[in-house]
Amino acid sequence: MPIGLLKDIIDERPRGGTLLGLDVGKKTIGLALCSPGLSIATPLQTIKRVKFSKDMIVLEKVIKEHDVEAFIVGLPVNMDGSEGGRAQSIRDFSAEMARFLNGDPWIAFWDERLSTVSVEASVDNLVEKRKTKVNAKASGLIDKLAAQLILQGAIDYICDNS
């Protein structure tokens, strides 16, 4: 299975199983799920990163528990659409993840420009601003909601282009 931009590998997407959305950060990995019916992304959890091999053990449990067949990984592109160092880091993470999973997983990248900023703004509008970002970030809420936003965008694209 390929690793690449969703628009480039959409036709090779596995049709069964669950899609797992990932918002990969330096300290956390936000996770969201979508069932094979491709309707709605649901926030799942946030993994507090320790080191890659330990992160993958946690991720592997999620993959088995939810019958994950494919991955949508947020790709942080610059506002002009170019890719910088952070995007390359995500590409490297995804390649390592594929190797760790001892298979040939389908991993699609989705433009995550401003996903975390959008989630933070939404959370700010719901509750008192002083407490919001600190509590939401510490609880992992921001990261799993960002993963949900990334996955939902990809689901909508798949539904519109399949």
Q: State the share of residues found in helices, binned by percent.
A: 40-55%
Compute the number of helices: 6
What is the structural class?
A: alpha/beta
Count structural domains. Answer: 1
Low-confidence stretches: none
Specify the CATH class: Alpha Beta
CATH architecture: 2-Layer Sandwich
Count all strands and give the number: 6
Which series of helices and strands comes N to C? Answer: EHEEEHEHEHHH
Strand order of the largest sheet: 1-6-5-2-3-4
Termini gap? 18 Å
Beta-strand proportion: 15-25%
Classified in CATH, the superfamily is YqgF/RNase H-like domain
How would you explain this protein's 3D organization?
With 162 residues, the protein is α/β, with parallel strands linked by helices. The chain has one domain (3-161): YqgF/RNase H-like domain (Nucleotidyltransferase, domain 5). 48% of the residues lie in helices and 23% in strands. It has 6 helices and 6 strands; from the N terminus they run βαβββαβαβααα. The protein has helices spanning 6-9, 52-65, 85-100, 115-126, 129-139, 141-161, and strands at 3-5, 18-24, 28-34, 42-48, 68-75, 106-111. It has a 6-stranded mixed β-sheet with strand order 1-6-5-2-3-4, sandwiched between helices. Helix 4 (115-126) packs across helix 6 (141-161). The model has no long low-confidence stretch (mean pLDDT 85).
